[in-house]
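3.2 Worked example (two chains)
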Amino acid sequence: MGSIKIKDEDALNVVLRTFSFLDEIRWRDTSNYNTINFAYPEMSDDEILLTHWLCYVSDRQMPFRRIWDV
């Protein structure tokens, strides 16, 4: 596996802190473990893709089919 060069360490830290914050919100309350995420038919393709990606990341890299089914 190749190495990754970090061009802007401050920007990377902002991104990582943001995801850490979102992760803490998502998992802080056990009632969030079964939160249902519905994709509304009127969403644009970009909104659906973003929603899918956020769910995937927020659910700690679980397979996407499991995330949508729950």
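3.2.1 Second chain
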Amino acid sequence: MNYSVCFSARSDYFSAIRSFAEPAVRFYTKFYLEPFSAEETTEYAEAAFRTHEKLHGLLRWLYEKTLGHPYFLAFICRELLACTQGSVPESPEHLWPHVFQQLERNKFRLDLAQVLNES
């Protein structure tokens, strides 16, 4: 059986126990994810909003909010599209409280609940 496994950690996570971990990690293809650059953030936002017009201010705002983190970029774009019925927001800053509340509700509360349930 072939399973996909996603393990998130620093790239040097196994360095202290390399000889011990080697039998397990040699079977996996390592793919290191990095934050998006400003150009990659632009590319993603243009695809998400299906336009490259009127995005200049939004692109700068998105990059400042997400620092290129793909998860947060996708989440924020999805919420902005939902708030504006699929159009490009003229002023995303006034939508930020709602977007942040959704992010808190959908992401962090679930994560915190899992941590509290495991304790």
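3.3 Remarks
The chain has a mean pLDDT of 81.
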